[in-house]
Write a structure and sequence with these properties.
- The chain is mainly alpha-helical and 408 residues long.
- 45% of the residues lie in helices and 8% in strands.
- It has 16 helices and ten strands.
- The strands form four sheets. The protein has a three-stranded antiparallel sheet with strand order 1-2-3, with helices on one face. A three-stranded antiparallel sheet has the order 4-5-8, with no helix packed on it.
- The radius of gyration is 29 Å and the shape is extended.
- The relative contact order is 0.07.
């Protein structure tokens, strides 16, 4: 029996299986041998099927092919057409930057609408800076000049976002074989150390928030009890306005003092979506937030949603739960500098951190994936606490010692 026939229907003979286990960078995918290699400046491996069955002889050929590719990459002479001349995915056309940005960068199905709109604005800006530019025209000198231009023309945050998208697109373009080389490999990236760098727009000055006294005055300034309840809940729970708009009574557990945030409303269309982290989170509410929910219960307990618009108890159409015009008027009358209604969330986070809550707990409570966002926004108000080891407390030490019995 020929060796090529020893592999049938996903069953590999022991000799081939043993040979495959020693072949680095070679694997089986859909019953065919596949090799994996990393292109210069890329953090992800490029994987390419060779279209041949996994036999001992073919594994030897795959290793030789992979060695040739790695040597070409090391010498800087790697070209797709040299190693995969019959690859149907090799593209001969020279796409424009705009086409590549839409195809490679904006195809992110998991993005929320607000994030997508933000990145679409970045793409429009880049299209203005490089009108009708083709990817092959984006050489190292041009991209160096581009990085310098956006650094001088835009805020540091926006400049970092624009350059970051360009770097991302060029790296993906190499993987997709739209271009052969990534010019950004030889360009020093914008520094993130001496600025408030991030994908989101963050003020250069420390974030301004409301004091507790200002928050109480704002709540009292509204005459409608339902609006007071809503504001109290926003200030003392830290949930996003869109999350409050989508909160149902079935998400409230009065016995345990918790709410489960399962969905949010978008700002413009008012669509119901999962929260930004795509996962529900159950919050143990501070007492004042729970009191706001109980005060709201007589008004909307027979309705589906906790907070509704006006006396007609209709669900909010979107995440705009507070009228901007009236909000401005009330702040002006109270002599409080203007801050967006969304600042209710930032205010709660700041109060919690200043009161001594841990960064990780606040991040989890707010629905952030990690503590980076908390440190970026609120690092200036997080108390600098010197840790005290409980083992250094004589009383704790002695009690611990007495509670532990020797095994001897």
């Amino acid at each position: 029996m020929q060796e090529a026939h020893l592999y049938k229907e996903g069953i590999m003979d022991p000799r081939t299986k043993k040979r495959l286990s020693t072949a680095k960078g070679v694997s089986v995918h859909r019953d065919k041998l596949r090799i994996a290699f990393t292109l210069p400046g890329d953090t992800k491996q490029t994987k390419r099927s060779l279209g041949i069955m996994p036999t001992v002889k073919n594994i030897d050929l795959a290793e030789m092919k992979l060695a040739e590719i790695k040597l070409a990459i090391l010498r800087g002479t790697f070209k797709w057409e040299d190693h995969f001349p019959n690859d149907k995915q090799v593209r001969n056309e020279n796409p424009t930057l705009a086409d590549a940005m839409v195809e490679l960068h904006l195809k992110q199905g998991s993005w929320k609408n607000s994030t997508r709109r933000q990145h679409e604005s970045y793409v429009r800006t880049l299209d203005r800076l490089f009108p009708r530019a083709q990817l092959s025209d984006l050489t190292e000198p041009k991209l160096t000049a581009f990085q310098r231009q956006v650094s001088e023309q835009y805020s540091h945050n926006r400049a970092v976002a624009l350059v970051g998208i360009m770097r991302n697109v060029m790296a993906k373009a190499v993987r997709a074989k739209l271009v052969l080389n990534n010019p950004f490999l030889y360009i020093e990236p914008l520094s993130k150390k001496n600025s408030n760098v991030g994908a989101e727009e963050v003020d250069d000055e420390p974030m301004r928030v409301f004091t507790i006294e200002e928050a109480e005055n704002i709540i009292d300034a509204y005459t409608e009890q339902v609006t007071q309840n809503l504001l109290s809940f926003l200030f003392w729970s830290g949930v996003r306005p869109g999350e409050a708009s989508a909160l149902r009574w079935t998400d409230v557990n009065a016995t345990e003092g918790t709410v489960t945030i399962r969905r949010t409303r978008t700002m413009k269309q008012g669509e119901l979506q999962t929260p930004k982290t795509h996962a529900a989170r159950t919050l143990i509410l501070p007492a004042r937030a729970m009191e706001a929910l109980e005060a709201q219960r007589p008004y909307t307990s027979k309705q589906e949603y906790v907070f509704c618009r006006g006396d007609n108890h209709e669900p909010f159409a979107n995440a705009k739960v507070l009228g901007r015009k009236r909000w401005k008027t009330i702040l002006s009358k109270l002599g409080i500098p203007y801050l967006k209604p969304y600042t209710t969330r930032h205010s709660f986070a700041s109060w919690a951190l200043m009161a001594g809550e841990s960064e990780s707990y606040v991040a989890q409570f707010l629905g952030h994936a990690n503590v980076d966002m908390v440190r970026r926004h609120y690092g200036h108000i997080i108390p600098k606490v010197t840790h005290f080891w409980t083992l250094d407390d004589p009383q704790n030490y002695n009690e611990l010692k007495k509670s532990m019995r020797s095994k001897g």
